[in-house]
Amino acid sequence: MSRPDQIELSPEILAAAADSKAWPFEEARKIVQRYKGRDFPETVLFESGYGPSGLPHIGTFGEVARTTMVRHAFRVLTGDKVKTRLLCFSDDMDGMRKIPDNVPDRAALEPYLHMPLTVVPDPFGGKYESFGHHNNAMLRRFLDTFGFDYEFASATDYYKSGRFDAVLLKAVEKYDAIMKVMLPTLGPERQATYSPFLPISPKSGRVLYVPMKRVDAKAGTITFDDEDGTETTLPVTGGRVKLQWKPDFGMRWAALGVDFEMFGKDHQTNAAIYDRICEILGGRAPEHFVYELFLDEHGQKISKSKGNGLTIDEWLTYAPTESLGLYMYQRPRQAKKLYFDVIPKAVDEYYSFLSAYQRQDWKERLGNPVWHMHNGNPPKVDLPVSFALLLNLVSASNAHDRSVLWGFISRHAPGVTPQTHPELDRLAGYAVRYFDDFVKPTKVYRAPDEAERDALEKLAEALGQLPAGADSEAIQNAALNVARRIERYQDHSKQAPEGGPGVSVAFFQMIYQVLIGQERGPRFGSFAALYGVENTRGLIAKALAGKLAA
Which site from 249, 403, 465, 480 is most exposed, i.e. has the minimal number of CB atoms within 10 Å? Predict the structure, then answer.
């Protein structure tokens, strides 16, 4: 991913950006409008929040990726004349309210319930100072791998270092105004005990959800009963007290001067609360972008604590980071399922957009996802074989490593080697891993019935009559000609180019069910050209002999 300092802005780009309907530009225009009629600040601040209650998931990455896209669009709209920063802020001072399901030893963490996450021991081998530090490191590792330009911020560090002290003292002063915003949002029972301040017990170290007995604006202190009943007074400064999460949002915006922050739809109803508290504390609420949530394969919201859905590392085991970037760009306001089956399509769509980019004018380019993913500098990649085709080649050839795939690829495309096409070589490795872990265990070959046997015999005969070196179009047409003569596979709602009925998709579904053991596959002609006509005829022979279904 290109660094932001690599932007090259031509008059053509600036003109196309002014009219672009791509969503990052639409969001960036809100920030430009925010400062209409007055000077921009020294730095425009973009922020992304992260709750490190569990291991980071892809939704967390998506927020940073999308914010980066808006930041880049803003820099283009302003001619790259305004400094920007992206702050990734971790709420790691939050108390651990429940033990995540995906830690190795849940019982070991029970004594640390309700303590700040940066106090809870690291359950993953003790390599890091705390559970919060571990999860922060996992987030930074991926963001660094992807090449994001960002600054990391820890709530623990900001609270304890005094970065928030001035605004926290303002919160004591404006206590009644904050309560007027918060209390109507709560039920009667919660109203009776609610306080925007969460003291950290000097005795137990736990984050306490207790009512305030006194709030002293002049002294900058709060008074409450500690867990043992002892009346305790603490200054709100120096990390001794933190704010409840809703007031904390607004406080942080006011303290840091945040200009843009996006968040998931689950925050949408609270956005007005965050904004109002920010204003009460003397700040101006940032521009917002609300995105839809990611769902697992069962349609449930993915959760860090549950560990459902895909993790960052899982996606990157089976596909390049660029495919994940594309998935984040597409339809951010639409809920999308995030599980292993979406990976192959995302991979091929990325390379399709990348190929199209070189043929497009600037207006089209600025609407192409790869322009936003690569900060305006997408790479040139020649990919003669799709990822879907590689997966089916692995399936048909039972390849256990990519060298087997290269035997087919090099014969199909002379001169194409791992050295000349390293990106294809990388995809070949992903294809083998993805097939072994997710396709192979679910493969179910079925035996053909009599009509299907006849169709396959005719297909093998037609392939045998093709001239040596027949391309994918010739192979596809040969298969279509076979299917058109078989009543079962005639589709009378379509018309063949030379007249007569078209071909039903059932014909190709049958081929993949019988020959590959899968419900779907790429275009048959492309597959057979890559796998080889004689190898394809051999596969048909095995199916007819009952060797595949067996």
Answer: 465
